[in-house]
Design a protein that fits this description.
single chain, mainly alpha, Arc Repressor Mutant, subunit A, 3-stranded antiparallel β-sheet, 3 strands, 8% strand
């Protein structure tokens, strides 16, 4: 499992770990029922506190991305299509927010942005 962590980011490390794992689950790099590294192994591999990894894993489990089996380890949970759709919608909202900010900054009106969306969707309105 690959893990990209930035010590200079304003995003807490446990959130970065969580995001890395969610991204890999959503892109099918990590498959359903695939075992993920133990908390201790991951902490050792990326030189991060065990408590930080535990917090990330606890949140991943409470959100339904992983399941932990006592004595066996943590595994990728079956994909919840509603969860995947919700994550995709959140990602889209983040991009739209950036589009709106950029269009306001450069004085591009909403109608022009909608026209661009229509072009990308392949419709004339």
């Amino acid at each position: 499992m690959r893990m990209i962590i930035s010590n200079t980011s304003s995003v807490p490390i446990y959130e970065q770990i969580k995001k890395n794992i969610i991204d890999q689950i959503m892109s099918d790099e990590l498959k359903e029922d695939e075992m993920i590294p133990s908390i201790r192994n991951l902490a050792s591999d990326i030189k991060i506190s065990v408590m930080t990894i535990k917090k990330a894993y606890d949140e991943l489990e409470s959100e339904g991305y992983i399941k932990t089996i006592q004595g066996k380890g943590s595994f990728v949970a079956p994909k919840n299509t509603m969860l995947a759709k919700e994550k995709a919608q959140k990602d889209i909202e983040d991009y739209i927010s950036k589009i709106v900010d950029l269009s306001i900054k450069h004085d591009i009106n909403k109608e022009d942005i909608i026209d661009i969306f229509n072009i990308f969707y392949g419709s004339d309105k």
